[in-house]
Amino acid sequence: MPKVAVLPGDGIGPEIVAEAVRVLRVVAPDIELTEALVGGAAYDATGHPLPPETLELCKASDAVLLGAVGGPKWDVIPDPNLRPERGALLPLRKHLGLYANLRPAICYPALAAASSLKPELLEGGLDVLVVRELTGGMYFGLPKENDGNRAVDTCVYTKDEIVRIAHVGFQAAQKRGKKLCSVDKQNVLMTSVLWRATVEEVAKEYPDVQLSHLLVDNAAMQLVRWPKQFDVIVTENLFGDILSDQAAMLTGSLGMLPSASLGTGTFGLYEPCHGSAPDIAGKGIANPLATILSVAMLLRYSFGRETEAKRIETAVEAVLGAGLRTPDIAQSGEATVGTIAMADAVLAQL
Ligand SMILES: NC(=O)c1ccc[n+]([C@@H]2O[C@H](COP(=O)([O-])OP(=O)(O)OC[C@H]3O[C@@H](n4cnc5c(N)ncnc54)[C@H](O)[C@@H]3O)[C@@H](O)[C@H]2O)c1
Ligand SMILES: CC(C)[C@H](C(=O)O)[C@@H](O)C(=O)O
Ligand SMILES: [Mg+2]
């Protein structure tokens, strides 16, 4: 029986995951779901944000569905390595070998008004895929220290790490618009010099893909100026984190952006790109669509179940077309629905 580990986490995590689970149960009732603690919730219950049982459950599953971790309550844990982000999320990604993070920024036509872009920049829709390297760079490089007077983070990339994520970027581009933009900071960073040279080398294997390079500051600007110039963007861990939140606002809301974190096999971790949203947690108004769309990615990438994945995406599009809006995607004066009602509407479509 296919198995998925469900890790709701903190803040709005449990609210949105509960709705995504309802969708998953309807679309793929044969998948066995097992819930476990992660993040601040796990720290409170066990003293560690990633209890060994949770990691074991993930390793024994075919995929993981995660909500979000962290929040002000746990930002003050004295040992930074026991905070939810550093103590749970990053080790999960690293231990599970999930180096390729796919973050599709799609602006559904019905949400054009919610996008931060002028309508003329959205004509014909928007579909940009950010491929973010997820287990290297500044997040993991050592030394990493802070003695109260001087703090150090280290950015490290090996050629192998760049080669494998470059292949993911090129192969994604081959299946889409055949354009890959690699984003770096090669005018300053040595890791970026290696990044650019390596991507150029890998490009020789993909003559059908048009490769371009942008420095990250320019890329951030271009993403807002004229996002349709992009098809697939491949970039390192920290730049990908920032650019994907920025790309989210082109789609209407951070609450719309799903993600898949993949390694070499079919195992994957699926989560919305957003965090635990402490400012709206407990209010029942979080947008569940990023997590529901992450379930579609889970079915597609870990189980090869394209039909079910498409069913979910079509249902989401229909619900948006019918005018349902959580507050984050509503225009002023527009009626809004809460988290559960939005998911109810998706289920009704299904
Ligand atoms: N993958 C993760 O678990 C993850 C990702 C990002 C941030 N975080 C953590 O989450 C905490 C809060 O971080 P933050 O506030 O900087 O970022 P955030 O992504 O949680 O929230 C940013 C803004 O977007 C809004 N938002 C986010 N998701 C939404 C949704 N589904 N529906 C409606 N609005 C939504 C929030 O209300 C907030 O105003 C921090 O502890 C951070 O480390 C975790
Ligand atoms: C919470 C944080 C560690 C995480 C990251 O930076 O990767 C988040 O911002 C994300 O985008 O998944
Ligand atoms: Mg982020």
Automatic annotation (TrEMBL):
Pathway where it operates: Amino-acid biosynthesis; L-leucine biosynthesis; L-leucine from 3-methyl-2-oxobutanoate: step 3/4
SMART domains cross-referenced by the UniProt entry: Iso_dh
Protein species of origin: Armatimonas rosea
Enzyme class: oxidoreductase
GO MF term list: 3-isopropylmalate dehydrogenase activity; magnesium ion binding; NAD binding
Residues binding substrate, per UniProt: 93, 103, 132, 217
Function statement: Catalyzes the oxidation of 3-carboxy-2-hydroxy-4-methylpentanoate (3-isopropylmalate) to 3-carboxy-4-methyl-2-oxopentanoate. The product decarboxylates to 4-methyl-2 oxopentanoate.
Annotated HAMAP family: LeuB_type1 (MF_01033)
Catalytic activity line of the entry: (2R,3S)-3-isopropylmalate + NAD(+) = 4-methyl-2-oxopentanoate + CO2 + NADH
Record-given protein name: 3-isopropylmalate dehydrogenase
Cofactor: Mg(2+); Mn(2+)
Alphabetical list of InterPro entries matching this protein: IsoCit/isopropylmalate_DH_CS (IPR019818), IsoPropMal-DH-like_dom (IPR024084), Isopropylmalate_DH (IPR004429)
